[in-house]
Amino acid sequence: MKLLEDRILTDGVVLGEDVLKVDNFLNHQIDPVLMQEIGNEFARIFKGRGINKIITIESSGIAPAVFAGLKMEVPVIFARKHKSLTLTDNLYSASVYSFTKNVTNEIAVSKNFLDASDNVLLIDDFLANGQAAIGLIDICKQAGAKVSGMGIVIEKSFQKGRQIVEESGVDIASLARIEAFVDGKVTFVKEEEA
Ligand code: G4P
Ligand code: NA
Ligand code: NA
């Protein structure tokens, strides 16, 4: 998505070897005009698959997911994050280990909002090592829900998340695919490889 790639080039800041800071439009301050374009693009890509629900994870997945939900006219659920869960009654939950932050969070979705009749689109802001994605897929599996796709705003294609999600059989569409950070500059996966 050209608009998003341009914004990453203008406002993204590369931190160290493998982190892209996008605090001024996605992870802290949010640009609603850009988020709406992103939501519309997800709606276009995943049209016609019978999706009746979107699931994301708090916090940064919520903005793009809500705009996709607005266009697709379906509800949006955000999985909640906790350090650990004691009361798991009436919840689907999964453990998500973050390589970036070296911490494990439990993510959970209430059984009130997801069941075997659902056909789900998963959305997240970043795809890095794929652990959050796998956790969401696992939660849908527990519910017996169908997963019809995963929409990612920014994929770091040099990390292993995409491969892990593809191995689980879920179709991914990433709106920006970062190939590498070269001397602090972002390069994207070329169209023909994408
Ligand atoms: P994984 O789920 O793909 O395995 O990702 P990882 O553990 O590496 O990432 C943990 C957190 O860091 C996630 O956000 C993820 O979205 C974010 N993240 C990973 N790589 C980058 C990056 O290059 N830039 C930015 N800005 N974020 C990155 P989170 O902790 O769940 O936080 P939230 O922002 O959604 O609240
Ligand atoms: Na994040
Ligand atoms: Na996220």
TrEMBL record:
Entries under SUPFAM superfamilies matching the protein: PRTase-like
Keywords, sorted A to Z: Cytoplasm, Glycosyltransferase, Purine salvage, Transferase
GO CC terms, sorted: cytoplasm
An annotated Gene Ontology molecular function: xanthine phosphoribosyltransferase activity
Residues the record lists as binding xanthine: 20, 27, 156
Reaction equations catalysed: XMP + diphosphate = xanthine + 5-phospho-alpha-D-ribose 1-diphosphate
Cell compartment(s), UniProt: Cytoplasm
InterPro entries the UniProt entry points to: PRTase-like, PRTase_dom, Pur/Pyrimidine_PRTase, Xanthine_PRibTrfase
An example Gene Ontology biological process: XMP salvage
EC number from the UniProt entry: 2.4.2.22
Pathway: Purine metabolism; XMP biosynthesis via salvage pathway; XMP from xanthine: step 1/1
Primary site of residence: cytoplasm
UniProt superkingdom: Bacteria
Physiological role: Converts the preformed base xanthine, a product of nucleic acid breakdown, to xanthosine 5'-monophosphate (XMP), so it can be reused for RNA or DNA synthesis.
Family: Belongs to the purine/pyrimidine phosphoribosyltransferase family. Xpt subfamily.
Quaternary context: Homodimer.
HAMAP family: XPRTase (MF_01184)
The protein's name: Xanthine phosphoribosyltransferase
